[in-house]
Amino acid sequence: xxxxxxxxxxxxxxxxxxxxxxxxxxxxxxxxxxxxxxxxxxxxxxxxxxxxxxxxxxxxxxxxxxxxxxxxxxxxxxxxxxxxxxxxxxxxxxxxxxxxxxxxxxxxxxxxxxxxxxxxxxxxxxxxxxxxxxxxxxxxxxxxxxxxxxxxxxxxxxxxxxxxxxxxxxxxxxxxxxxxxxxxxxxxxxxxxxxxxxxxxxxxxxxxxxxxxxxxxxxxxxxxxxxxxxxxxxxxxxxxxxxxxxxxxxxxxxxxxxxxxxxxxxxxxxxxxxxxxxxxxxxxxxxxxxxxxxxxxxxxxxxxxxxxxxxxxxxxxxxxxxxxxxxxxxxxxxxxxxxxxxxxxxxxxxxxxxxxxxxxxxxxxxxxxxxxxxxxxxxxxxxxxxxxxxxxxxxxxxxxxxxxxxxxxxxxxxxxxxxxxxxxxxxxxxxxxxxxxx
Length: 438
Prior knowledge:
mainly alpha; 19 helices
């Protein structure tokens, strides 16, 4: 009797061990590399916040003009996001992500030639066009390797590249601006754009040779491991029987539009913070670009820890909604508290709460739409949600800049970001728990 009951248990244990080993291989093969790519992507997207410290005065940019330039990136991003992701779904991540990275690296380097507001606007728009499809393409790519119940932790780990890029990128940007200023007749911000663009081009070339489009293409997995991974993904896709099956059906699905609203709110808080963090730190009394960079890294260290902890907790408990609502409300409180902070230390604590809450919402959010989207619906839906949501990347920086120009302080902008995050948290609670808690 003991032998009969023990054999199935041993078989189940062996199968689980094989599955865990296969996912460990997948993790170490693709996730660190994708994180490195996203670190570079995010750095090239938001380093304009550091360039502003020197570039605005040299080019005569107003706060509102900078906000428009910072945000116009997302207009180009919006128009080309869905087509880019549909192409990626057809030609494969390896070719298309390589193309995206090389193109945006070249355009990012071209920022060193910015000479006026109009050139600044044009280059930011083109950078958005070039990068369109990168992030939703990665999210779609991860769904082809990981089922829903493993995905929150993986997406959170991948998106921890956001705080990592700030932790290392902010001091690096400040160091380049200070250290290279005047070299060969170029300003420090010009050198920053050039130097930080080079890794994108190099990684784009590596991507073409390194990534595998599908589980079946992975020569580093055994046939047994491929079978388990493919079976899990197939079972996960079968569970999404309610997914829209065409681009038109995806665009008209009310669930997709609700996801757009939620993500819009969270992205607005995230980018409102990212693009203005150096300015807010400077306003708290910190001087020197390198010092501002080092102090600006503190909130992102807190964010890195929060993202990994929340992603792991969400997968372990298979709970999605409250793992979004609570961080969003904490972020809103952090923004409000930052307006009344009486010292640099208090301001950094408040900004750390705001950053940890607002930025952690993004990876956790993607557990919601990927719980019901599959196939063509996933390719179009993920891209559409990301493109609409990222329009907040235009509105957020612009509104913070406009409100600062209008009121003469950062407070009104912080209240605006807090209010939008509360709206996003309330919208999450309208999502049926049984539809996403998998």
